[in-house]
């Protein structure tokens, strides 16, 4: 079953409180990486301490810091002091499971997105949080796998436009990755839906119905977490306060188009799974009707045969005082004649049923 992790503070907690995330036995320390680049220079390294990135912030370059894994309150506070992040935004980062949204704080754009992925047979949704300023971008992903490897590769190879643009284009590149991850997830679910449709037509069963309901729950989760992303992109495109260059907004429009396509696919699959429940009920009903038809044909054939053997099973053959005392019981070929009549009756009825396409 698809799921996501939602964290929250107890009711009445002061706004901006950074509480401790729930501890687990297999919890891993988050990985903090830094990429600093210009059109001509590039530097990449993992950070053991955030003090190591202070030098890059003084340069005329774009600095991207990415935190992979569950961020600790101490790390988040250090990043907040370093980049002057708003406390309410930092609270949303540590309380994962937030609805996708965008906010603007003191010349900083704060964006929350949902990153879907399929792990085995389960659909998971991870939160991606991004802070974008004039010359920096800080991103958080609470999953185990870094989804931005392709962006790092493009930065290393100096391919595309990223290193020639500012942090607003880098933000677009990351949002594009997060949004486009919905396509392979929906493609996988679409293949499962096709397999279920074939199973429904051939051999519907309780396991098939159970799988349909599981996929319906996953689609409901995806709709809940991916639907607001259209609003996020629409706000970035249309809000004049958002610090995104006009020449960059055309790329965000492309992201917006992708969100529309994803939602169209999602709604199509939801309608298909809803219809599949009706198809399951129809298939089960048809199988029951086919079984009842066969049983009815068999019962109908045996009704006249049962009548015949019932009549000749009566004990009137020993009555010698009446001419109506079943004299055919004493015929020499009486027994095989009765069998011949019964076989002829059954064959005739089968022929008639076949002509009428009753089976």
Question: Would you kindly provide a written description of the structure presented here, covering whatever features stand out?
Answer:
The protein folds into two domains: 31-283, Beta Polymerase, domain 2, CATH 3.30.460; 290-355, Up-down Bundle (Methane Monooxygenase Hydroxylase, Chain G, domain 1), CATH 1.20.58. 52% of the residues lie in helices and 15% in strands. It is built from ten helices and seven strands. It has helices at 54-57, 73-83, 87-94, 149-157, 167-180, 182-202, 206-226, 228-238, 246-311, 334-355; strands at 31-37, 42-46, 62-68, 101-105, 108-119, 122-132, 136-141. The chain has a seven-stranded mixed sheet, with helices on both faces. A hairpin with a 3-residue loop joins strand 6 and strand 7 (136-141). Helix 9 (246-311) packs antiparallel against helix 10 (334-355). The protein is rod-shaped. The protein starts with 30 loop residues before the first strand and ends with a helix.
Key traits:
359 residues, 2 domains, 7-stranded mixed sheet, Methane Monooxygenase Hydroxylase, Chain G, domain 1, 52% helix, single chain, alpha+beta, 15% strand, Beta Polymerase, domain 2
Domain count, please report it. Answer: 2
- Compressed to H and E, one letter per element, the order equals EEHEHHEEEEHHHHHHH
Task: Give the total of beta strands.
Answer: 7
Q: How many alpha or pi helices?
A: 10
Strand order of the largest sheet: 2-1-3-7-6-5-4
The shape is: rod-shaped
Reported CATH architecture of the largest domain: 2-Layer Sandwich
The computed structural class is: alpha+beta
CATH first level of the largest domain: Alpha Beta
Give start-end ranges of low-pLDDT stretches: none
């Amino acid at each position: 079953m698809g799921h996501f992790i939602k964290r929250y503070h107890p009711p009445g907690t002061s706004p901006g409180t950074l509480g401790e995330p729930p501890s687990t036995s297999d919890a891993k320390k988050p990985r903090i990486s830094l990429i600093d680049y210009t059109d001509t220079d590039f530097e990449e390294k993992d950070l053991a301490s955030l003090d190591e990135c202070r030098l890059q912030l003084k340069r005329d370059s774009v600095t991207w810091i990415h935190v992979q894994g569950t961020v600790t309150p101490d790390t988040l506070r250090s990043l907040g002091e370093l980049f002057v992040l708003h406390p309410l935004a930092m609270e949303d980062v540590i309380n994962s499971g937030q609805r996708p949204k965008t906010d603007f704080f003191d010349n900083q754009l704060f964006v929350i997105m949902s990153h879907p992925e399929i792990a085995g047979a389960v659909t998971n949704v991870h939160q991606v949080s991004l802070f974008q300023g004039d010359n920096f971008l800080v991103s958080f992903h609470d999953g185990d796998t870094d989804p931005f490897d392709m962006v790092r590769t493009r930065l290393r190879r100096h391919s595309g436009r990223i290193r020639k643009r500012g942090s607003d284009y880098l933000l677009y590149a990351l949002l594009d990755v997060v949004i486009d991850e919905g396509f392979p997830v929906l493609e996988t679910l679409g293949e499962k839906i096709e397999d279920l449709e074939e199973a429904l037509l051939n051999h519907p069963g309780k396991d098939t119905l159970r799988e349909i309901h599981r996929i319906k729950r996953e689609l409901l989760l995806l709709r809940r977490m991916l639907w607001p992303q259209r609003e996020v992109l629409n706000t970035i495109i249309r809000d004049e306060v958002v610090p995104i260059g006009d020449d960059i907004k055309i790329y965000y429009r492309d992201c917006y188009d992708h969100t529309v396509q994803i939602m169209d696919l999602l709604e199509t699959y939801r309608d298909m799974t809803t219809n599949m429940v009706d198809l399951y009920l129809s298939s089960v009903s048809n199988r029951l009707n086919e079984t009842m038809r066969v049983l009815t044909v068999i019962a109908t054939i045996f009704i006249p045969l049962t009548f015949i053997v019932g009549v000749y099973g009566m004990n009137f053959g020993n009555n010698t005082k009446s001419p109506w005392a079943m004299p055919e019981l004493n015929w020499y070929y009486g027994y095989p004649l009765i069998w011949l009549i019964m076989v002829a009756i059954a064959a005739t009825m089968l022929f008639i049923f076949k002509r009428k396409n009753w089976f």
